[in-house]
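Many introductory courses stop at the sequence. We go one step further.
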Amino acid sequence: MSQVSACPAPSPLRNPSNSHVAAALTSTSSNERVWPWERVAIAATLALAAWFRLDDLGFSSLYHAEAWRANWSYHSVPEQMRRFPPLQYAMLWLLQHTFGRGEWLLRLPGALAGIFSVALVYGFTRRLFSVRAAMIAAIFAAGHPVLIEQARQMKVFGLEALTVVVMVWTAWRLFDKPNTRNLKIYTIVTIVCMWFTFSGVFILGAWWPIIVWQWFRRKTESSHNMRPLVIASILLLMAGMAWYIWLLGNNYVTVTRDYYFASEEKAWPSSYTPSQLAWWIFDSCYGLLRYTLGVTHTWAPLGTAIGMLNLLALTAGLWYIWMRKRPLTIFLVLLVSIAMLAGVLKKYPFGEFRMMTFFVPLTAVVIGVGLSEIIRKLGASPVTFILIGGCLLIAPARAAKASLSTPVTYEHVRPVFEYIETHRQPQDALFIYYPVDDAFAYYWDDDSVPVLVQPRADRDQFEIFCQRFDQWIQQQHRVWFVFTHNWGTEREDWIGHLQRTYTTLDVFQNNDASCHLFSSASSSKP
């Protein structure tokens, strides 16, 4: 009887040859058996994600940026196409003209996108790696405080959590199997996502070099027509952007020049010395890392400890993906690099981390892979796995508590307008602080009340504000001053001046929003 000895294949982790890397690119876990516990676990995770994102979704008022989107999207469709991203405004227009203008309804698309993004994070991670990594990634995404916060607001960042996974998944399918079908899917999905969210441009810029390189180095089942398809898809994407530029008309040149090249709000500090610039880059990267790992006030005081665990898992995940699916690691590096270069022209996105929310679902994938590999390498028992998984559940538990005890936004201005409506007298007038103008247009529908909406040009202009309010109160005698979204020290300076100059008859405070009733009839000072 002959004895056959089997030699184990060399591990790609020790010797990542091209053959092993190529083999790993096509290996997925899609053929793994779906166990009953897996169905229950992912259903519970999605239920948890839904609770975090839908609980009391319409309780809080629309704050200034949300109200601006609600008012603008209520206009005609051609007007919406002059704002980016246009399909998001078209969707809001359809919702408002079909079902109404309630806060819950307007925030619902972002919340649903956040829930579906958790499901896609699970599916994408499971297909490329393993069930265990997919479950960890889904739990991380379901309870990530940043993803919860952004999904509960009527802004583009909640939708980006969904579109980033869709774009990366379709791009990876095309990279793995560059055929005509996957090319068509990738092109259509990319155009739709680019017209829905900002992140599509960055993702497209990071994926195209990798995909084009892969197209020209691999033989495919349709190699005879792949080159024309590459050119056609690029032209199609350029045509989509050209259409948008044409819709903007002459405003595109003006807005681009003023907003990007003539703006003083640049992320890159041009006046810094080389050492100061290096520190700024380090500090910005550190802040971005904390943001993507979810180390915010929601996790305090355990945020640092959990952040270190996530950082360890992130490092291990990047190393594992680099050894097994190297193009995916290159894509992540290119994505961050493009966002940093964009910050040279404008403080968004690298200067404001909320514009980098689209990176968080990808971070969840990497952390899921890294923590799964750590558990596998350690040969962890089920008890150890439960303990480590429990650490990841601390953040969702704290996020749930925060979502139940605090409003969706800090500008809860609706009760302020309701208070004024029930306590005002027929001769009263309103003076609207300039960041409240959009919320005022959304909530106030009484045209019989005299209203002066402060121009945004008054920003940080104390003397102009005093002159404008003095003229208004001398004309109207009793004025409600509605204030929220404080800029700098304007709240202390402006309200302090009014309280010293005029008689305060009434005050109502609700979170960051407030109203003050001033009278000039019994003024103690001229």
